[in-house]
Amino acid sequence: MREQESTEPADASPPPGATPETAQVRVAYFAIHGIGRQGEGETAGDVASAFSDAASTLGIDLEEAGSPASEDSSVLRSTDGSVLVRFIDGWWDGHVTPPPLGRVLRWMLRVTPFMTLMVIAGWMLDLQAAAQTAPRRWKYPWEVLGIAAAAFALLFLPALMIVLVIANLVIIRRPDAWPRLTDIVLSTMGDAWLYRSDELDDDVLSRLRAQLNDVRDSSDHVVLVGHSQGAEIGRRLALDGGIDACIWVGGALIPLAVARTMRRSRSLPYVLWCYVLISPLLFSLLVASLLQTLGGFIWTLLDSFLSVVSGAVKPTAGLEPMRQAPWDLTGSFLAHLPLLLGFATFSLLSALLLRKLARWPSDLTQSPDCPVIMVKSLADPVCFGHLDTAAAVRYVPIRAGRAVWREHVAYFEKPETGSALWEPLLGPEDAPPPYEPRFGVMTKIVATVAAAGLIAAAYALGSAVLNAFGW
Length: 471
Hints:
With 471 residues, this protein is of the alpha/beta class.
C-alpha cells in the first residue's frame, strides 16, 4: 500500500470515537447503472473489478475484507487496514414497469430529430476540445469527422424518421409483429422513456436517495459512480450535497436532457419535423449550386490552358476566357446569393424558434458541489457532449474492429476507467496521466471518404432538384 497520505482523500478524518492509531477511513463507491436490463449488484461489481485491477497496476495492495454486508457488492481494504472501500449498487431496474412498445415508438418519433442533432453537436464539441490537446499529427481527422457527422445528420435524418413512421404503423396493426424488436426497444429506449416520466421522479429517485442517505451515514467519504443513464440520475442525486466526488462513465447527459426537455415542450416536435424535412433539401441545393459554379470555373481555366498548350488557339485568344472566367465566377456566385441567404436565414430562424420553444428543466445547468470526472469515448455516441464545463474529462482508447460496437458497455474493461476511479483518492497529481485520444490512419481514410461521399450525395440530390425545375 502506498503511504497513507496518498491513498486517503485530502480531507480524510477519523470516524467518531476512533483514535489516530486505530482510525480506518471508510470510503463508499455508490454505483448506479444505466439503460438496459441489469442484474442487482452487477454495476457495483464491475466498478469493484476495475478499481481492483487499477490498484494492481498502481502498485497498491488490497485484500478482500470478509463477507460484504447485504447492501454491498464487494468490500476491499488496504493491507495495513487504514482504508476500507465498499462498493454499493444503486439498482433500480427491477423497480420500474416497462412501458408499452407503441408508446415508446411514438415517443422516439417525437424526440429522434432533436436528440440526433444534439448528440452530433455534442460530438463536434468533444472533437474540437480533444483536438486542442492532441499532438499536431493527430489533428487532421477530427475536423473531417465533424463534417461527415453534420452531413449525415442533414441528409439521413429524414430517412430515419420514415423508418420510425413505418415501425409505428406496423406496431399499431400488429403489436406482436416483431418480438425481437420489442425486446431490444423496451430494454434500451424504454428506460430512456421512463427517465422523462413521473415514475422515475416519484419512485426511482426517491428510493435511491434514501439508500444514498444510509450510505452517507455509514461512510466517511462517498463517491458516486454513474454509468450511462445512471450518470444523469447520479447528477440529480448529487445536487442534494454530501458527495465527495462524482464519476460519470459514458454518461448519457445530453440525450436524457433532450428527453426531459421534449416532455416539457409540446410544440417543439412539430418545428423539428419541419427543420428535418426542409434543411437537407436546402443544404443539397446549396452544395449542388456552389459545386456546379466552381466546377464550371475550373473547367474553363483547364480548357483554355489545354487549348493554348495544344496549339489549337493562339495564346492571346486562349487567355481571353481565362481573363473573363473570374468575372463569370463572381457573377455566378452572386446569382446563387439568394439561395445562400435563404439557407442561412432558415437555419437562423429555426435555431431562434427552437430555443424559444425548448423548455429546459431548471436543474440542467446545475452541477454537483464536488469534483466531477467524466469518463468518455469518442466512439460512444451516448456520451457525446456535456453541460458541466468544470468537469475533468478522461478519455478511454477506442476498441479496435468490430469490438467498437460494444464501446458503451465496455468501459469497466479498460484500465483507464480504473485509473479514473482511483483519482478521487489519489488526487489528480498522483493519479496516472490521462489518456490522450488519437485516431489512426484507417480512421483518417474512413473519415475522408465518408465526408466526400456525403457531400457527393448532397450534390446528387441538389442537382436532381435543380434539373427538375430547370434552374
